Amino acid sequence: MGFVFSKSMNENMKIQQEFMLMNARLQLERQLVMQNDMRERQMAMQIAWSREVLKYFGIFFSITTVFLTAGAMKRKKPAFLFPIVPLSFILTYQYDLGYGTLLQRMKDEAEDILETEKNKLQLPKGMITFESLEKARREQSKFFTDK
Fold first, then answer.
1. Helix, coil or strand: residue 13
2. Which candidate, 87, 86, 88, 95, places its Cα nearest to that of 54?
3. Nearest Cα to Cα of residue 70 among 115, 62, 42, 113
4. Which is nearest to 54 in space by CA: 98, 100, 104?
5. pTM of the model
6. Where is the chain membrane-spanning (predicted)?
C-alpha cells in the first residue's frame, strides 16, 4: 500500500515539476517578447525623432544657405559660404539617420564588435555575482547601522 502511494506521489511530483518548468519557460518567452517589443518601440521613437529634427534642420539649412549665398554675392566675399559645408554634413547625417541606412550600418558594426572584439565588452572586475552583491549589501547595511 505504501509503495503504491509513494509511486503516485512521485508521479504527481514529476507532473508538477514539468508544469512548473513549462510555466517558467512560458513566462521567460513572454518577457523576451515584451522586451523586444519595447526595444522596437524605442527604436521607432528614435527614428521618428530624427525625422522631426531633419524637418526643422532642413528648413534652417535652406534659409541659412539662401542668406549666406546672398551675402557672399552682395559683398563679393566667398568666405560667407564656408558655414554651408559643416551644416551640409549635419543635414546629411540627419537624413541618413532618419531615412538612410545609418541604423543598419550601426547594427552591422555592433554585430561585428560582438563577434570579433568581445574583450572590449568585459565589465571591470568581471560579471556581477550574487556573492559580490551580498558583500556590498552587507557593507552598506553596516554603514547605515553604525551611524
1. helix
2. 95
3. 62
4. 98
5. 0.69
6. 53-73
Alpha helix segments (H runs only) across 76-146? 84-98, 102-116, 130-146
Better-predicted residue by pLDDT, 146 or 67: 67
* Spatial CA neighbour of 42 closest among 103, 100, 105: 103
Q: Which residue from 94, 90, 109, 107 is spatially nearest to 43, judged by alpha carbons? A: 107
Quote the cell numbers at residue 73.
Answer: 554675392
- Distance, in Å, from the CA atom of 1 to the CA atom of 6, rounded to the nearest integer, reads 9
Residue whose entry in the numeric block shows the C-alpha cell 530624427: 50
**In the structure grid, which three cell numbers stand for residue 113, read together?**
564588435
Q: Which three cell numbers stand for residue 33?
A: 517578447
Q: How far is Cα 44 from Cα 55, in angstroms, rounded to an integer?
A: 17
Phi first, then psi: what are they for 46, rounded to 5°?
-65, -40
- pLDDT of 42-57, one tens digit each? 999 999 999 999 999 9
Question: Could you report the per-residue pLDDT of 71-100, keeping only the tens digit for each?
Answer: 999 999 999 999 999 999 999 999 999 999
